[in-house]
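User: Show me a protein chain along with its predicted structure.
Assistant: Here is one chain, sequence first, then structure tokens.
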Amino acid sequence: MPKSAKHLLIGSTETYSGKSATVLGLSHQLQQQGLDIAYGKPLGNSLSTSDGTVVEEDVEFITHSLNLSANRIAPTMLALDEARVQKRLLGEDKTDYRQSLVQQYLQVPRGDLVLLEGPGDLAEGHLFDLSLLQVAEVLDAAVLLVSRYKSLLSVESLLSAQERLGDRLIGVVINDIPSAHTETVNNFLRPYLEQRGIAVLAMLPKNDLLQSVSVGELVKQLNAEVLCRSDRLDLMVESLAIGAMNVNAAVKYFRKRRNMAVVTGGDRVEIQQAALETSTQCLILTGQLPPPQFILSRAEELEIPILSVDLDTLTTVEIVDRTFGQVRVHEPIKVECIRQLMREHFDGDRLLSKLGLTPAKAITT
């Protein structure tokens, strides 16, 4: 009987804290040290249909990024959505997910370490016995929590999580720290958590690129028509600007921003012109009015996509804002960025020592 792999669950106290990014950066780092890594996401939520089969987008992307073979991928037990919850509440879904976890995760050998991406927060999945703590208990897994830094109040949710997870919590990653707050986190939050037995394994600085969304993602979310440069939908947008003021004010406003998407009316030609001459990654025109030919020609020349949406400005801005709030790491440029951040800031040796693992490269030298 082959020795069973250890399991490490990457969880968070709230959604969109950076779990997938942490998995990507950490697994690459551990692979570099010669460890045989497997990956799974027991509870899925970002689903798409491919060739008639339903796939979890994060699982597919991470599998591809890490070049993992099929026997190093643990299956997703359940896709969490309204319909599945309803079936469970009505008693139509009687599946014993604990038993499924044991069969699919514990009875199949998968290398040295299985990295598991946990649910959105500590409560999600509880109805199906697939919450973070429930999965950790079934798999006897250690837990690494990712917390997006907002203020020193972040300490509250981490202490509460420690109370619930107990000794399973082997460390935290504090993510998205603005440079102005680095000292505060270092001087106050980090020592306080360490004194209380919560190991701070990484303090990751805020990074505009990781918070950015691709023009292609905006096209998808807005159901937009691409009027030009559909070959540049890979451009990354870091901020949003609304061109609703007079042109002089707009120019000043645009000059202060970088890598922006500008939302303006299809009839605001002078604003469109000003946007094209500043740090704009795409122009989003509302009201379904086509821009004049000279605007399209200039955008072609500058390689700036122009999108047309059948929405008013307010709705457009709300959708773009929401897209920024739900940023995914599915672009190669972001993968490289997170790997570099983790290399610089994550204490991999301390993690391995807490897991009782030895890097393979250390063994051979």
